[in-house]
Amino acid sequence: GVDILPLGLAGEERPPFFLLLFRDHTQARRLERMRTDFVANASHELRTPLASLSGFIETLKGPARDDAAAHARFLDIMQDQARRMSRLIDDLLSLSRIETRRRLRPNEAADIADVLRSVAGQLGPQAADSGLAVRLVGLDGEGVLVNGDRDELIQVFANLFENACKYGSDGGRVEIGLRRDGEGVEAYVRDFGKGIRAEHVPRLTERFYRVEEGATGKPGTGLGLSIVRHVLTRHRTRLSIVSEPGKGATFAVRFVRFLDAIEKT
Ligand code: ADP
After folding, report:
1. What gap in Å lies between CA 56 and CA 118, rounded to an integer?
2. Predicted complex ipTM exceeds 0.95
3. Mutate which of 86, 92, 162, 163 to test ligand 1's pocket (most atoms within 8 Å of Cβ)?
4. pTM, full prediction
């Protein structure tokens, strides 16, 4: 629909001018469509492991009742499927919690160096146990305040760090750090694994999008980066993804320093 509002007063010398407002009905329809697609996708993603679980239960009760070797094998698969369902539910709950959250207040500050140190502290030991070298870069100077919610930012960088460990493991090391410059700071997670081919990069933050599904891929839900994008949008910033296939990937987020952020609002 188009609304035409006359601006300017009658009797003025200059002719009134008109402001055209294009109200976007297709936008509302698209959002509604996204929501129904999302529910359909989420149900599908949950139903797949559930169907597999039911199938194995039937087999264990029936044909394989007395087959001890099959029991062990099927129980392992069932455990994987149950884990997959619980990961999905955790991610779906995270997404919906973020969606219903109030707006970020302009006076909320978080120390981004501390956020990154805390992620490295929580997840670093596990990465080291699995043979990855974890390097912290630029994190031991003084803190850097940005406008943000500490817990949400921890979730962002924990997701990025977990991905770097999961998909970059063949690169042998993972880097988490800060690059400071004049007005801002860039927080990043970098790995040296197989990287991401260019055609996938723009789609990575879509819900449920995964480059490799199934047996060839690592376990995951395809929701991690959409959660990241959501949180960063709330923080009025966004994710930049740079990757050279075969050499690794860098996921970076720019923030303005807190004082600068206040001056601009
Ligand atoms: P998940 O890890 O659960 O699949 P994400 O939304 O976190 O979901 O990631 C989406 C996809 O992006 C992953 O399935 C993977 O294919 C790709 N990806 C994410 N991080 C990396 C990385 N560091 N290196 C290579 N590919 C990545």
Report:
1. 41
2. yes
3. 163
4. 0.83
